[in-house]
């Protein structure tokens, strides 16, 4: 019997499907009380399992940063396949894999679950693009070097700052945000990676600036390389953003959206190239 959404708990005894309408997370779970956990997002298109290695690599890197146990890739893959089978057939399925430190005062067993539900329809925003404001993240680009406990490159459950940034963007009449560092570098969006183009060179900030490794960004680089463009990781000065030929924010579910307004200033948009990029990202998600 199919259903939506689908919630699976990954327990020591196995994988268990539970009723999404019933409470499943203890109020004393470290994930609920402190945001002490990690997660990963996977986009499923037409019921086909996408490549998972890069996402598991990032999930494990986040777990290491939080001193959590490394994941069992085989179990998570099994749970992901089970969620696709159990869910009502939809064109795009958004799946969240999450793991917390477990119950406060418990035996240290992590709490782990998978949530599968229909993805939001981002067709319109992929075509229209987004208006963006730059917001200071409050850290220098090398802050993670001397303070790894800031968890700047980890995908952890404490997303309150990112949500607050998006609310601030809305107050300013914008759709999204590009974070900047106190030393003047452009970094990433609250839920996306930054990709820029100038001439035949496509760039993204590197992870050494304290940002999350972008799995969709890596796929986007392969697309641009297939079009004969050069790609590289490089520091991107926030003050120079308006001088680029194109800006994109890329993520697994929303895919690529062009920035058409930056801090109130109109930006050039290559609609054809953006459409081709999104077609490439969708094909990559169906590749297995």
Would you summarize the structure shown here?
By secondary structure, this protein is of the alpha+beta class. The chain has 2 domains: 6-119, 2-Layer Sandwich (D-amino Acid Aminotransferase, Chain A, domain 1), CATH 3.30.470.10; 124-285, Alpha-Beta Barrel (D-amino Acid Aminotransferase, Chain A, domain 2), CATH 3.20.10.10. 28% of the residues lie in helices and 28% in strands.
Q: Can you characterise this structure?
A:
With 288 residues, this protein is of the alpha+beta class. The chain has two domains: 114 residues, D-amino Acid Aminotransferase, Chain A, domain 1, CATH 3.30.470; 162 residues, D-amino Acid Aminotransferase, subunit A, domain 2 (D-amino Acid Aminotransferase, Chain A, domain 2, Alpha-Beta Barrel). 28% of the residues lie in helices and 28% in strands. It contains eight helices and 14 strands. The strands form two sheets. Strands 6, 7, 8, 9, 10, 11, 12, 13 and 14 form a nine-stranded mixed β-sheet that branches. A five-stranded antiparallel β-sheet has the order 2-1-5-4-3. The longest helix has 15 residues.
Any key phrases for this structure?
8 helices; 9-stranded mixed sheet; about 290 residues; alpha+beta; D-amino Acid Aminotransferase, Chain A, domain 2; D-amino Acid Aminotransferase, Chain A, domain 1; about 30% strand
Anisotropy-based shape: globular
Could you give a short account of the major beta sheet? 9 strands, mixed
Q: In percent, how helical is the residue content?
A: 25-40%
CATH architect. name of the largest domain:
Alpha-Beta Barrel
The total count of strands amounts to 14
Mean pLDDT: 95
**Under the CATH scheme, which class of the largest domain?**
Alpha Beta
What is the tally of helical segments? 8
What structural category characterises the helix and strand content?
alpha+beta
Instruction: Provide the low-confidence segments as ranges.
Output: none
Specify the CATH homologous superfamily of the largest domain: D-amino Acid Aminotransferase, subunit A, domain 2
How many separate structural domains?
A: 2
Helix and strand pattern: EEHEHHEEHEHHEEEEHEEEEH
- Briefly note the CATH topology name of the largest domain: D-amino Acid Aminotransferase, Chain A, domain 2
End-to-end separation in angstroms reads: 25 Å
Strand portion, in percent? 25-35%
Radius of gyration: 19 Å
């Amino acid at each position: 019997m199919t259903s939506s959404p689908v919630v699976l708990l990954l327990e020591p005894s196995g994988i268990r499907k539970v009723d999404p309408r019933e409470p499943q997370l203890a109020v004393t779970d470290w994930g609920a009380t402190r945001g002490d956990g990690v997660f990963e997002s996977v986009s499923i298109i037409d019921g086909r399992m996408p490549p998972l290695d890069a996402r598991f690599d990032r999930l494990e890197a986040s777990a290491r940063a939080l001193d959590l146990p490394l994941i069992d890739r085989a179990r998570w893959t099994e749970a992901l396949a089970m969620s696709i089978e159990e869910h009502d057939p939809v064109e795009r399925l958004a799946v969240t894999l999450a793991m917390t430190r477990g119950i406060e005062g418990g035996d240290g067993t992590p709490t782990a679950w998978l949530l599968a539900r229909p993805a939001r329809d981002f067709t319109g925003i992929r075509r229209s693009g987004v208006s963006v404001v730059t917001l200071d993240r409050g850290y220098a680009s090398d802050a993670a070097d001397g303070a790894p406990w800031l968890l700047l490159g980890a995908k952890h459950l404490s997303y309150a700052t990112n949500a607050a940034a998006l609310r601030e963007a809305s107050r300013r009449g914008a759709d999204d945000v590009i974070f900047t560092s106190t030393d003047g570098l452009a970094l990433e969006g609250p839920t996306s990676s930054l990709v820029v183009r100038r001439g035949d060179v496509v760039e993204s900030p590197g992870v050494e600036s304290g940002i999350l490794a972008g799995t969709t960004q890596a796929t986007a680089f392969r697309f641009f390389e297939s079009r004969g463009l050069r790609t590289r990781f490089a520091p991107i000065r926030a003050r120079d953003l308006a001088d680029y030929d194109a800006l994109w924010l890329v993520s697994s579910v929303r895919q690529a959206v062009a920035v058409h307004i930056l801090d109130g200033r109109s930006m050039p948009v290559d609609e054809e190239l953006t459409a081709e990029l999104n077609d490439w990202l969708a094909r990559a998600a169906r590749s297995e």
